[in-house]
Design brief:
Strand content: 25-35%
Bound molecules: ligand MTE, cobalt (II) ion
Number of helices: 8
Shape: globular
Mean pLDDT: 91
Structural class: alpha+beta
Number of strands: 23
Radius of gyration: 24 Å
Length: 426
């Protein structure tokens, strides 16, 4: 490599130009702009210890864990939100992940009465109420129904909920990390309801978990018969205890609270149950102080995961990968735009292919950073044509006192030194 970039402005104009610029760009970071290193690099020129003896045998790790250099890619909590550890919340490290699938081991958890240990042998699922035949299934029974595999995101209704009154938490993990995206394998709920025979007056179901909180929620029959899954696998393996082992409900595109873990009972009724979780909680406070009920769908939303407060730019000027996540509970994301100047100019980002409807999308925007401050935002548009709103637009309707369903555009202020902060712009 002898060429040096002479004009950063031509980065990315052609594919060859971009590749050349990228290699030189990393050299710039290493050598402080002086071009390629002149001294030999021992990591290239010397046989390293790991190439001088055997590595671990295959029996060293029957079940693999991330390598020790990646131990910071973990769930984290916000101490003031987590007064009681058994009724608590932690956050997915979305800032450090790429692609779209969330490994179960770092998918956020939300428990109202702690994660319980329920074995497959002790597992029962009852369907009762307005059905022809009340049924009780064992885990083995469930395994004999036709099953499907689909990727879906689960977003807690409270995700970004701490940001209503002002920019508060420093990091996409904390502002947007009550979300995960997994490939679920399970039985269409419709098949189990058909097995029991829903009576004509049956318009709603109540779903309940086996934990002490039970987390009861009413779901309209139309959704129950549409795309819900009674799932027992996530990302190919059994659900983790904290995600509802051995069986959880998957309610694609709808708020995470309805995705009942340790699912034990489904009652068919002719009206909603008005449970604690859908009256005192999970309603939306409006600007006039009234509460809006039955807001189940998670509207289109996106966030830049890197750069962001936990992912400062460390490589100096030149090529910069701006990336993030976008999702919509109403279907798919058709477009994500990114701005580096607080919304004065927008650029269409590249969307990676999506796995399923109502799943996370990954976007990339390949930028050439000149080292000046950025007000970084992303804005998602979904398959219904809905465009993610600004914070001001959302507040005009919802005021400042809401908790749930905050899908506004997020701003990161990236400073010249590469560090980023959560801010609001008006
Ligand atoms: N189901 C039961 N049985 N108990 C619970 O506490 N929490 C709900 C939902 N299902 C909960 C539950 C909430 S509020 C959310 S956001 C999701 O589960 C969280 O799922 P996760 O812990 O797998 O991320
Ligand atoms: Co929740």
């Amino acid at each position: 490599m002898t060429e040096k970039p002479t004009d950063t402005a031509d980065f990315g104009t052609t594919r060859r130009g971009f590749l050349r610029a990228s290699v030189a760009g990393s050299a710039l970071a290493v050598t402080g702009g002086a071009g390629m290193a002149q001294t030999p690099d021992p990591l290239i020129t010397t046989v390293q210890p790991w190439a001088q003896s055997f590595g671990d045998g295959v029996d060293a790790t029957p079940y693999g864990l991330p390598i020790r250099f990646e131990t910071d890619v973990v769930r984290r909590n916000v101490p003031w939100l987590t007064a009681d550890v058994t009724s608590s919340i932690n956050f997915t490290p979305i800032h450090a992940l790429d692609g779209t699938i969330t490994p179960q081991g770092c998918g956020f958890e939300r428990h109202h009465s702690g994660a319980i240990e329920l074995s497959k042998d002790d597992y029962r699922l009852m369907i009762n109420g307005l059905v022809d035949t009340p049924l009780v299934f064992t885990y083995a029974d469930l395994e004999r129904f036709p099953r499907e595999s689909r990727v879906h995101f689960l977003e807690c209704a409270a995700n970004t909920g701490m940001e209503w009154a002002g920019a508060q938490l420093n990091g996409s993990q904390f502002t947007h990390g009550m979300i995960h995206n997994m490939e679920y394998t399970g039985i269409p709920l419709r098949l189990l309801l058909e097995e029991a025979g829903v009576q004509p007056e049956g318009k709603w179901i109540l779903v309940e978990g086996a934990d002490a909180s039970s987390n009861g929620r009413s779901i309209p029959m139309e959704k129950a018969l549409d795309d819900c899954l009674v799932a027992f696998k996530a990302n190919g393996e059994a659900l983790r205890k904290e995600h509802g082992y051995p069986v959880r409900l998957v309610v694609p595109g709808w708020e995470g609270n309805m995705w009942v873990k340790w699912l034990r009972r489904i009652e068919v009724g002719d009206q909603p149950w008005e449970t604690r979780e859908e009256t005192s909680k999970y309603t939306d406070t409006m600007a006039d102080g009234s509460a809006r009920k039955w807001t189940w769908v998670m509207d289109a939303k996106s966030v830049v995961t890197s750069p962001s407060p936990q992912m400062p730019i460390k490589h100096g000027t030149g090529p910069l990968v701006i990336t993030g996540l976008a999702w919509s509970g109403r279907g798919s994301i058709t477009r994500v735009d990114v701005t580096v100047d607080g919304g004065k100019t927008w650029h269409e980002a590249r969307l990676a292919p999506q796995a399923s409807d109502k799943a996370l999308h990954r976007f990339y925007f390949d930028h050439v950073w000149d080292g000046s401050e950025m007000l970084l935002q992303s804005r998602a548009t979904d398959s219904t044509g809905y465009v993610q709103p600004t914070k001001a637009a959302l507040r005009a309707i919802r005021g400042l006192n809401s908790v749930y369903h905050n899908n506004c555009i997020q701003t990161w202020w990236v400073k010249s030194n590469g560090e980023a902060e959560n801010v609001e712009i008006s």
